[in-house]
Amino acid sequence: MEIFDGQAAEYDAWYSTPEGRRLDALEKTAVWRAARPKAGETALDVGCGTGNYSLALARRGLTVTGVDVSTDMLAAAERKARGLESVKFMRADATALPFAPESFDLVLSVTAFEFVKDPARAVSECWRVLRPGGRLVVAWIAGSGAWANLYEKAAAADENSVFQRARFWTVAEARKWLPGISPRIRGALWTPPLWLGKGTWGRFWIASVAERIGRVIWVVLRRSPGGNDSDSAGCGWRQSFCPGFVVVRWDKKGER
Collapsing DSSP states into helix, strand and coil, what is residue 254? Predict the structure, then answer.
């Protein structure tokens, strides 16, 4: 049994909460800016879960294939996709994708690489099935950030937590996944978990302001001397100001 089998209902329920909806919107803003999905393209959603991004891409006019290792998560995704012919789901491992080379215009993976044991191999597979001129976008909870710390504490307190099996990669580690190709990096979730607590007045307004300020300050910090070379959670030596979520994009040069 995969670690997410039996988790589909709880997973989807989180997205229906005010906090879940808000965080999902903040993450999607960063992902769409990096991925730049276009109607008519073909997309592969790796680690698609219950179809959050697969369905969103299909509704944007893309033809989408979602893959995951959890049959329960895929079953939930298929139920949600009924009547939507431009998306299909299948069971597959990120490190051994069952597709021919250069099959997709966009390959996307969001909050799945935390559970991939060999991310370099998975990225290599994603790159293999990406067409020239396409984009490979991987996004995850950033290592050493406040959100990673939250999930690590949850895992320590609950031996049944799925986060017992998670690893929160740093940007410095991700730079090594595809040797010789420099990625573009975006950040999101500068709002610490505490700020989104149910008792926090104006928490969603605070989050919106924090995201706007965060994007500007983070760019400045990362362009400062040593900002790229020593980064660990995306902002490096400035651990007091780190995004909780990072989006990395590799562009595959060449003509389609």
Answer: coil
Tokens of residue 12, six digits: 């989807």
- Residue appearing with tokens 């960063």: 30
Look at the block and give the residue holding tokens 């420099």: 182
What are the tens digits of pLDDT across the range 14-59?
Answer: 888 888 888 899 899 999 999 999 999 999 999 999 999 999 999 9
Q: Which residues of 135-159 are buried (b: 16+ CB within 10 A; e: fewer)?
A: bbbbbbbbbbbbbbbbbbeebeeee
3-class DSSP assignment, residue 42: strand
- pTM comes to 0.89
Q: What is the pLDDT of residues 117-156, one digit of tens each?
A: 999 999 999 999 999 999 999 999 998 788 898 899 988 9
3-state secondary structure of 120: helix
Residue 74 tokens, joined: 């895929």
Q: Where are the domains of the chain?
A: 8-251
Alpha-carbon gap, residue 71 to 109, rounded angstroms: 18
- For the domain made up of 8-251, give the CATH fold: Rossmann fold (3.40.50)
Q: Which tokens hold the place of 45? A: 């959603």
Write the single-letter amino acid at 244: G
Give 184's strand partners: 249
Strands (E), 77-129: 87-91, 104-110
End-to-end CA distance of the chain: 39
Rounded CA gap, 35 and 142, in Å? 18
Asked whether 106 and 37 are in contact (CB, 8 A), the reply is yes
8 Å CB contact between 146 and 174: no
Q: Residue 211: which of 56, 23, 35, 32 has the closest Cα?
A: 23
